């Protein structure tokens, strides 16, 4: 099977919801579903998090990041961390765990390197999305963080399957964009039961059109993607990187309100971005 046929085959299976996840991902999906239950309160969420040592450590670290620790008071317990973050932000922490677990089963060194770069790109987009939402577009920051974490989940799924199709990623990035990105991405997002508003925002990212100044969740995600200093290894050729940098430069020059520019706002929020980025990447 040539790589284009392989893309189409994986995309067709994804479209039908016939997706194969590692066992650890399935466990995290059950946790995500429990957190999505409207009746899941802080105490129940804390107990669920405490059952997973890695998730517990991540939750406490993110709760102590500058983006969420406005008081400067460090906390050490999972229960207090969950109280500070809230269930909705906790869903983003679990989503980050799911995305990283998709790459955890990769053994090929080349694919591992791609997965590591893709996660670094994802973390930059997620951290920037959270800050841009809160300070610029005024959309829900928790949703923006979640959208940033999930925007490349289709790519992670592809990498987790790539070893089954030798030569799948040997071609130009444009082939992934044309034959796999949207179809596989939509299938994985649907399987993970990602809310429609987030799926629509990620769809805006695939379409590549945003308003200036940015206004919507889709604009937030697009702008964060433009500004991310680490490119996706799946869909950015040197020419695409040049286009992205040019778009980012135009966005940085735009006015936000009457007396601020995007660049000045992001400069002021850099500590928040870097703090959140640190706990997401490591």
TrEMBL record:
<dbReference type="Pfam" id="PF08668">
    <property type="entry name" value="HDOD"/>
</dbReference>
<protein>
    <submittedName>
        <fullName>HD-like signal output (HDOD) domain, no enzymatic activity</fullName>
    </submittedName>
</protein>
<dbReference type="InterPro" id="IPR013976">
    <property type="entry name" value="HDOD"/>
</dbReference>
<dbReference type="InterPro" id="IPR052340">
    <property type="entry name" value="RNase_Y/CdgJ"/>
</dbReference>
<feature type="domain" description="HDOD">
    <location>
        <begin position="21"/>
        <end position="208"/>
    </location>
</feature>
């Amino acid at each position: 099977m040539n790589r284009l046929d392989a893309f189409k085959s994986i995309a067709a299976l994804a479209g039908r919801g016939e997706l194969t996840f590692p066992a650890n991902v399935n466990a995290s999906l059950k946790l995500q579903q429990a957190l999505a239950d409207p009746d899941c309160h802080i105490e129940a969420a804390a107990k669920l998090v405490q059952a997973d040592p890695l998730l517990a450590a991540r939750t406490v670290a993110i709760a102590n990041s500058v983006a969420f620790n406005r008081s400067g008071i460090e906390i050490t317990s999972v229960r207090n961390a969950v109280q500070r973050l809230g269930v909705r932000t906790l869903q983003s922490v679990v989503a980050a765990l799911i995305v990283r677990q998709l790459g955890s089963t990769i053994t090929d060194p080349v694919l591992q390197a791609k997965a590591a770069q893709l996660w670094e790109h994802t973390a930059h987009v997620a951290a920037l999305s959270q800050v841009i939402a809160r300070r610029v577009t005024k959309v829900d920051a928790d949703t923006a963080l979640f959208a940033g974490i999930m925007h490349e989940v289709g790519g992670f799924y592809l990498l987790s399957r790539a070893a089954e199709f030798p030569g799948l990623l040997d071609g130009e990035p444009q082939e992934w964009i044309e034959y796999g990105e949207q179809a596989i991405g939509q299938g994985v997002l649907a399987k993970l039961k990602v809310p429609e508003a987030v799926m629509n925002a990620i769809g805006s990212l695939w379409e590549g059109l945003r308003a200036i100044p940015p206004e919507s969740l889709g604009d937030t995600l697009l702008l964060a993607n433009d500004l991310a200093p680490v490119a996706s290894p799946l869909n950015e050729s040197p020419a695409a990187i040049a286009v992205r940098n040019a778009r980012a430069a135009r966005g940085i020059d735009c006015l936000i309100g009457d007396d601020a520019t995007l660049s000045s706002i992001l400069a002021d929020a850099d500590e928040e971005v870097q703090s959140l980025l640190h706990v997401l990447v490591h």
